Amino acid sequence: MSAGHFSDAVAAYTEVTHRLPDFAEGYCNLGLALEEAGNLDDARTAFESALRLKPALRGANLFLGIVDYRENRFKDAEARLLRETQIDPHDAKAFMWLGVCRLALDDPQDAITPLDTAYALDPKDEDILYHRGRAYLLVANASYDAMFKLDHDSMRVHQVLAEAYAQGYRNQEAISEFEIAVKMAPHQPGLHEELADQFWIVGQLDKAADAYREELSVDPQAESAKYKLGSLLVLNQNPTEGVEFLRSVLKDDPALSDAHYYLGRGLITLNQDKEAIEQLRLAVAADPANDRAMSAYYQLAQAYRSLHDTQNAEAAMKDFLRMRAQVKERQELHTAEIARKRSELPVEDPEKMAILAEPSGQ
User: Fold this and answer.
1) 128 and 34 in one domain?
2) Last residue within a domain, chosen from 169, 197, 220
3) Are residues 140 and 160 in the same domain?
4) What is the distance of C-alpha 235 from the center of its chain?
5) 190 inside domain
6) Same domain? 187 vs 109
7) 352 within some domain
8) Would you tell me how many other CB atoms lie within 10 Å of the CB of residue 315?
9) The whole model's pTM is what?
C-alpha cells in the first residue's frame, strides 16, 4: 500500500481476510486497497464486511462514505459520514467530508457547521480551508441573489457592490456606489466610514476626514471611525485634534497598538517628545516584528534626538535600519523569484532529447 502497489496489496489483504474471516481491520484495509485500485464496488463490500464485524470501527464509515460520495450516492454518504463524526468526534477529515457531501446536495448552509468543526480541529488543512471558504461563498452569493431579487436598486445592493469593488481595488467605482448608498440611507451606521476608507486610499484626505466625522455624528460610539479620524488628522496637518481623538480611543481600548503609534507621531509634532516616546514604545511592544514597529523605531529616533538623548536615538535608529534591511532583503528575494519564473523557459525532456539525438534507423 505505501509503495502504491495496490493490486498486490489487494491480493495480500484478500489472503488476510481468508485466513482471518473475523478480522474487521483486515476487511477495512482491503477496502482501502480496492478503493485505491479503482474498484469501488468491491471496496464497498469490504467496508460493509468490516462494519458488520465491528460497527464502531474508526475510519470504516468515513471510507465507505467517501466511496458513496464518489459514486454520487450523496444521501448514503451523508449518513455514513455523520456516523463517523459520532464515533470519532476529533476526526477533522470526517467533518470535512460531511460538509463536502452537503455541498454536493446543494445545501451549503448545513455544510458550514461540519466544515467549521473541521476547521476548529485542523485550521491549517488546505482542503478544509478550501471547502469551508466555498461553503461560505455559496451562502453569501445566495443571500446576495435574494437581496437583488427583492430590490435591485436598494441601499444594500449599492453597499455590497461598493464592497465588492473595494475588495477588487476598484476604488473610484467603490466610492461612487458608497456615495449612492449614503444618499439613500444617510443615517445607516458604517456607511460613512466605509466611504471614508476609500477616500483615504485614493488620497482625498479632506473628504475622508469629513466622511469619518459624518460617521461619528451617526454613531458617536464608533471607535474604529474615531481611531481612523484621529490618525488621519495627525497625518493631515491637524495633530492637536487628532491627538484628542486618539487619547479618547485609547482610554476605551489601550490594546489598540496602531493608535499608540499615531498618537506618538502626533505628540512629536506637538513637541511633547517624552510622552511620544512612551506611546511609540507601547506600539513596538505590541508586535516588535511588524512594519509598524519599524516605523515606530524611526519616530523614536527623532524624539530622542529632540531630547538630546544620543544613546537612545542611535539605538532606535539602529533597530530601524536593521528592520528596513530585513524588509528590503525579503522584497529582493521575492522580486528575484518572480523574475526567475517569468524568464524561465520550459525544461526539455532528457529522454526525448536522447531519442532525437540517436541516428535514424537505430
Assistant:
1) yes
2) 220
3) no
4) 30
5) yes
6) no
7) no
8) 15
9) 0.70
How confident is the model over 124-152, as a mean pLDDT? 94
Is residue 317 packed enough to be buried (19+ CB in 10 Å), middle (13-18) or exposed (0-12)? Answer: middle
Q: Based on the fold, state whether residues 235 and 321 are members of the same structural domain.
A: yes
Domain containing 274 equals: 221-339
pLDDT tens for each residue of 241-253: 999 999 999 998 8
- Final residue of a domain: which of 147, 173, 206? 147
Whether residue 59 is contained in a domain is answered as: yes
CA gap 173, 179 in Å, rounded: 10
Count of domains observed in the chain: 3
Within-domain flag for 130 = yes
Per residue in 52-89, pLDDT (tens digit) is 999 999 999 999 999 999 999 999 999 999 999 999 99
Confidence of residue 329 (pLDDT cuts 50, 70, 90): confident
